[in-house]
Amino acid sequence: MVDNRDPDAVPALLAALPENVRREIDGLNLAFYDLSKLRGHLILVHGQGDPMVPYSESQSLAAAASGARVSLFLMDDIGHVEFNAVSAANAWTMWRAIAALLGERH
Fold it and tell me: Measured between alpha carbons, how far is residue 59 from residues 12, 13, 30, 47, 68 in Å?
């Protein structure tokens, strides 16, 4: 799974995992939960070029959390978890996300 680069191979690779691992993965899948009752401020930062999780997943999460206040920040030029690619082009978006997070401190 970790080294796979073929999206079409994912279903077969998942099916080959042990049952307990598949259950753990399913437990992380927010599509299985009713997020409409979620309250608070959900701050999502997602790279549009994320090679592991499409940014549309954050868009779907934002839409599913209809009861929450949601701030979605989509950024160019950052990967999956590497925030070392902040550039002049995306610095303002990153700054807005950081300001939203710091604004939640009470």
Answer: 26, 26, 13, 12, 14
